[in-house]
Amino acid sequence: MLTSRALRHPLLPDWLLRQLRPMSIPADWTRVCAVGLGIGMPQLVGLLTGRIEEAVLASIGALCASFSDLTGSYRYRLRRVGVAAVLGVLGFAAGAAAPGPWWAAAVVLAVAVPSVLSSRMGDLWSSGGAHMLTFCIVATGEQSASLPVGEQIAWFAAGELLLFALVMATWPFRGTAPARSAVARIFDATLRMLDAETPVTARQELTKALNTAHDVLVGGGSMSRSRVRDRLYLVYTHATPIVEASVSLAHAGERPPPRAREALRSLARCMRTGEVPPPYQPGTVDSPLARALDQGIAELVSAFRIAKRAEVSRERERVRLTFGRSTWAQVLRMVLCLALAEGVGLLAGLDQPYWIALTAALVLKPNSGSVFARTVLRAIGTVAGVLIAFLLLSLVPPGWWSLPFIVVLAAKLPIAVDRHYGLFSAVVTALVLLQLNQGAEFHAVARLIDTLVGCAIVLAVGFLLRPLHRGPELETRFADAVAAVAEYVSQSLAGVRHGRPALRRRTYRQLADLRGALQQQLMNPATAPQAERWWPTISVLERVVDAATEKAVRDNPQDLQQAQRLVSTMRTTTRQLRSTEVRPARLHDELERIYAGVAAPCAPGAPGGG
Question: Cα angle at 271 between 266 and 273, to 5 degrees?
Answer without folding.
Answer: 90
